[in-house]
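Progress against Task 2.4 (sequence-to-structure conversion) is shown through the following example record, which the project officer requested during the mid-term review.
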Amino acid sequence: MVSPSLSIPVYSLGLSQQALDQLKSNVHMLTEQEVDSFLRSTNHLLIIVHGKELANKILLKSKSLKQEKYFRLIIIDQKFSIEDITSYSNSGLVFKIVCARNKFTELDLFIHQAMEKLLEIQEGEDIITKVRVQNKVLSEINENLEDLVRQRTENLETKKLEVESKIRRIKDLIKFIKSLSQVNNFDDLILLLRQEFIKFHKIRSPLLIYVLGGSEMRCISFQGPQIIDQVIASHDTDIFTSDSGHVREILANALERPIGPLTDLKFTFANNRGILLFEHSFSEEELNLFKQILEERAEPLRVAFERLALKWHAHLISRQWSSTFDLLKDPILIVDRNYRVVRSNKNFSRHQGEQCFSLFAGRSTPCVGCPLPRAVENQAGEKGKINILEKTFEVEAFPIVVDGIDESSNLIVHYKDITHSVNLQGQLVQSEKMAAIGMLAGNIAHELNNPLTGIKSLTQILLSEVPASSPAHSDLLEVQGAADRCEQIIKNLLEFSTNENKDLVEIALRDVVHKTIPLVKTALHYFNTKILLTDVDDSIKVDPQLLQQVIFNLINNACQAMGGSGSIMIESEASDKSVILRIRDTGPGVPMDLQDEIFAPFFTTKEEGQGTGLGLSVSRSIIEKFGGKLYLNKEIHEGSEFVIELPRSKNAPTDR
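Structure tokens generated for the chain above:
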């Protein structure tokens, strides 16, 4: 067998030349002295040893070497004991033991196998060496990576801390801005700033100096837990541009205490100026940090200052307008489209949040004549008249127009009490009406009295000539009576139309009624009339002509209310203290929602041109002038009943 071409050297020790010649392998002779150096210099080799003693020496030498050697022994001897075999096997260096009696021709096979085994070991060692080199390189790379990761981790941790710090500062800033949005005045602002910067132990409580709209300069500071808001005597408004030393001097004089180093934040808005000041004992580094935090809050603080300044101006303007409106005698209010009161002046004197017609007139529905619906519909100012509790108001409604909005949601309503002027106008109309009636009555009396005088005179002459037993005598008496009645009617008409102020006279109510009935006889002709006047003394103290006008108006109104048919009852009664006249009709009556309106001047339910709306108003004023009352009996549900209640004359005897 030919030895393979391997790089593993083969040496023999103690083997004869004759034995070597029998080998086909390339085996070199090795002396015992060369063994030590070979073992030290060569990692992989095969040694064929003849004799156990030489083999044992080589094994002992290998144990003395510090580094591990990958050599193998083929041991040839005559005989091997069990102990030898065990020892050689445990050494791990003996590849083969060969008995000398074996032929050396088998030794080539052993050598070849040993060399292959050594080659495997060498290759494995090379691989291990490469792996070790690679592991070392990888270890170095790993160490470098660990260093890089450690460095980057440290950087990330630093950046994380920086980000967390920024997030925390942003959260604090957001919280501060939210708190600022809830500040309603400068005192609240100072309290918030004190709480915000309480963590800085080297600053005192903040101070705020401000001037709003050119007004006096004020300073807000703390005296212990108490807030002090005071006027600074100095009118040097350059404090907002002065250096720290000048500001400290002004504050020391104002607060009457020494002032430490200051850092500030200034605000300017229109005619409003402010400066926020902090006393501190910071080092330069600490002051820079505080300024940085203060600068982060500078813009929100400026916005808050502007908002508080605007709110102050709005409050000032609102107070001025409120004072102006409250000084007005007329009720003025702002209402929404549903009549709900939004705001009113003191003279309206009502609670907000309810509807104006309920508050002002005690009604459950809008006032008759209210111009608000027309103002909403036309989006323009409208006027109207309403009657409330025997008073007449001129009402003006003006939509509040806001730029960019087509329709207004609120309206200004102005009530003007025109009761006095309406009453004067009513009295004037009534006076003019009575003057016209008086002029007409005077002309009628003048035109009728002359022929009536002739008729009466001729009748009296004829009566003196005609015997009483003659049928013509009774006819002449009828003519004379008719002439007398005509004279009385003319006299009553003249008295009715008299418009002079007269002293009150004592007269029986029944007499006034009897004098008035003929004046409305034509109107009563179509109706069933029932007159029930008391027999008890019903003396009253009045102006008979004015009382006639009242009775005439009430009867005439009853006739007009019934139309073409119905009944009228005129009834009187007397008590110890008063005399009452009731005039009742069977007409449609007065609707519930109008019962409080009918006595207002110029209020009428008649069609235009058929009434002035002054009759009941003037009638009530006349009765009240006599110390009495004129009212509608609301307990009557069929038709209408008007009641005149007058005080009984003191000279009238009481009922027995």
